[in-house]
Design a protein that fits this description.
Layout (H helix, E strand, L loop, with lengths): L4 H6 L2 E6 L2 E8 L12 H17 L6 E12 L6 E12 L3 E9 L5 E13 L12
Antiparallel strand pairs: 1-2, 2-4, 3-6, 4-5, 5-6
């Protein structure tokens, strides 16, 4: 399955994906900066969200998809230009809800931010024909 358009646009690469765990990388550059000259928090959220979503997608059953209902971000350190790594894991996957956590670190191993999301797991009827995420 090809990476989603946002991952391609931002230059994200999937480094690892196993049952409920992922690691993604992304080069951060001046094109991602906010007016203060550091990587915009939304870019960090995009990376974390993609990593968390991929971790959850790895646990979906046939005919299931999901949507994020809540995303929280906690920023600890500004970054300018570096390789960012997002490490996500599914903490709890229930029948209809999942809770996922992610840490984003810079290439020196410094913790840049912690993120978490709550996701609604949806069973799509086969005849719906709507887009759905598959593992």
């Amino acid at each position: 399955m090809p990476p989603p358009p946002i991952a391609q646009f931002l230059g994200m690469t999937l480094e690892e994906c196993s049952q409920g765990v992922t690691r993604m990388r992304m080069p951060a550059s001046s094109s991602h900066h906010n007016p203060m000259g550091t990587v915009h928090g939304g870019i960090l959220c995009d990376l974390a969200d993609a990593s968390m979503g991929t971790a959850l997608a790895s646990l979906l059953k046939e005919g299931e998809t999901f949507t994020t209902v809540e995303l929280a971000a906690h920023f600890f350190a500004p970054v300018r230009e570096c390789i960012l790594t997002a490490q996500a894991k599914v903490v709890r996957r229930g029948r209809t809800m999942a809770y996922v956590e992610c840490e984003v670190i810079d290439e020196g191993g410094r913790l840049v931010g912690k993120f978490n999301s709550t996701c609604l797991i949806i069973a799509w009827p086969e005849e719906s024909g709507e887009n759905r995420v598959t593992a």
